[in-house]
Design brief:
Blueprint (H helix, E strand, L loop, with lengths): L2 E6 L11 E8 L8 H7 L3 E4 L5 E3 L3 E8 L4 E6 L3 E7 L4 H11 L1 E2 L13 H5 L2 E2 L2 E2 L4 E8 L4 E6 L21 E12 L9 H10 L5 H15 L7 E5 L5 E3 H10 L6 E2 L4 E3 L2 H7 L6 E2 L2 E3 L6 E4 L5 H19 L8 E3 L2
Parallel strand pairs: 2-5, 3-5, 4-21
Antiparallel strand pairs: 1-2, 6-7, 7-13, 8-13, 9-10, 11-12, 11-13, 14-20, 15-17, 16-17, 18-19, 19-20
Length: 340
């Protein structure tokens, strides 16, 4: 790998902030993995970058950033009902979804148009419209950067949670470089996840029945209507997780806010849409300097052109504080702040 010095990262992350890193390298083949240990030892800080859709650079990065560009899809197993794919971690996530849609392979159509790479999908356990990527993952293959060996993680080993995994937990950040993800999809499925009302409404508008392609099309239309395109205005999609609170607290809030949307996760846990909480605090569409919350989706914090990472971070803290004061709910960011 060639190492470049003092690289502008503006084109490498979706917030589009002008920040620089001390050094930058692109990893395109697995043989390059064995150079990573020496790079980690050479620089004080080390960060693996995928599509840059879930990071906020709060300052220039004093270290080396390695961008993952591993590519390729391999069919591991196939029968009349299922197909198992081994997908390189540097592949664009939406491109994988579109490949599955074209082949009528079901399981990830609800996750259409989510930005980022395949390798980021298990880290965040990405999810949308009633589906999480853990539902279709069989294994994750990763390179242990210290031991310099490839390790296979079973689905159970990954310790998936809501927008969480063993790879995201602080102790394992930058310990592993995910190289491949193994997915099992359904061929020509007849059952679909359409419990979210927005999908049903969009398919009714389109006058179509549930199918892999029709659900994907509906999700794409919904996301394009609600979410700003990072190519047009800097953002990282949903900035905060939807909080999960005790059902007792949810009942107390419903007594005060009877129209509050809520989703029962279990007898003891209820999920509340973060966008609703933020909107109730008056942030939706509010511009503060060069940042603010998007007019169509309060959950999205945007860069109007000249915002710094620190301005966006401080704005997010202000949003968190107002939600905490009004609802006694602590919002947790989905976005990773770099440097940590």
């Amino acid at each position: 790998m060639q190492v470049y010095k003092n690289v502008d990262l503006q084109a490498h992350h979706t917030f589009g902030i002008e920040v620089y890193c001390e050094a930058f390298a692109v990893l395109e083949k697995k043989a390059d993995l064995y150079q990573l240990k020496s790079l980690r030892e050479q620089y004080n800080n080390f960060f693996i970058l995928g599509g840059g859709s879930n990071v906020l650079f709060t300052s220039n990065y004093p270290g080396i950033i390695v961008q993952n560009k591993l590519s390729g899809i391999e069919v591991l197993y196939e029968d009349a009902a299922t197909i198992r794919l081994k997908v390189a971690s540097g592949m664009n996530w939406h491109e994988l979804v579109m490949t599955a849609v074209e082949k009528n392979w079901g399981g990830i159509e609800n996750l259409s148009l989510i930005p980022g790479t395949v390798g980021a999908s298990p880290i965040q356990n990405i999810g949308a419209y009633g589906v999480e990527v853990k539902d279709v993952i069989k294994e994750v293959e990763a390179f242990d950067l210290e031991k310099e060996e490839l390790i296979t993680f079973s689905k159970e080993d990954c310790q998936f949670g809501y927008r969480d995994s063993i790879f995201k937990q602080a102790i394992n950040k930058e310990k592993y470089f995910i190289t491949d993800v193994v997915f099992q999809l359904k061929k020509n499925p007849t059952e679909f996840q359409v419990s979210y009302g927005d999908i049903i409404k969009m398919m009714e508008i389109n006058q179509v029945e549930p199918s892999v392609k029709n659900i994907s099309d509906a999700v794409i239309q919904i996301r394009q209507q609600k979410l700003p395109d990072p190519k047009e205005i800097g953002n990282s999609g949903s900035f905060f997780k939807n909080p999960e609170i005790s059902s007792n607290q949810a009942q107390q809030l419903l007594a005060k806010y009877p129209t509050m949307p809520h989703y029962k996760i279990s007898d003891s846990i209820t999920k509340i849409p973060a966008a609703w909480l933020i909107e109730q605090c008056g942030w939706k569409g509010l511009k503060v300097g060069q940042t603010g919350n998007h007019a169509q989706q309060a959950l999205v914090i945007v860069n109007y052109g000249k915002a710094t990472g620190e301005e966006i971070r401080q704005h997010a803290i202000n949003v968190q504080q107002s939600v905490l004061e009004k609802f006694d709910i602590q919002l947790q960011p989905e976005v990773n702040f770099i440097p940590y």
